[in-house]
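Before relying on records like the one below, remember that each one covers exactly one chain. Contacts with other chains, cofactors or solvent are not represented anywhere in the record.
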Amino acid sequence: MANAKPYRPDMGRLSSKVRGIGLYLPPIPLALATLISLWKGEAGGVLGNLSGFALFSLAAIMARRGLRLEYEYRQRKIARAPAVPWKFLAALTLAVATGLSAWLSAGYGLAISLLFGLGAFAGFYLLYGFDPREDKIGRLSLGVSGEEVIEILEKAEAKLAALEAAGKRITDPDHAAAVARIVEDVRKIIDGIEKDPNDLPRMRTFLNTYLGGIQRVADRYVRVQHAAPDAELIESFARLLNDFEETVKARHAELLDNDRFDLDVQIKVLDTQLNKEGP
């Protein structure tokens, strides 16, 4: 224990699909012990082992969910903290499962079993840590609140995911490719706002209204594409995708121009200050 190191968020670079998978191993012996107790007709053994198995499995499920949510939280510059502390609940459940198994299944005394439970709780914390509890909002101007940024970006991500799913169901390869390009470019806009939330005001209407509009149109087109839509409808949809793609590129360019303008202003201000101070 002397060499144990506390959990650090940087360790979360491991794939969220792999981390915590080892928590599914402790229930395996208990499952076998349950079958043995059932074969022997030991009701107490079945109850103890089955309870431990269920609690260990529940702890693993909660921990994996918490680790996945934490990974997503760490990957984003603007993010809401997980609403449910899944990792903390997993640690408590793991502690109860360990203590209960030591007492009912392994036959240890109550005091020793409690120590086993506390050790499991501490071990979980050292390996995985607990859940993030603060929202990440970045640098904000007076006209933009952190709650507003998070809410708009969450809704935009949901609309973008729905648009991407619709694009994958479009049978026309040109239309599907256009939707894929739009999704990629809109994601660049969202990434830009995450880097500088003060860009949100000029993009609010685009994210709130236009993105939702193209997503709804794409969904409806998916529903009618197999009903032999007429050439005029197909042409109208293609024209809409082209116009929207140009709009997205223009919006992204607007963000880049604003970043260049801000940098130019900062350079000029710093240059002026240096000239005033002299050599």
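Confidence is low (pLDDT under 50) at residues 4-14, 261-274.
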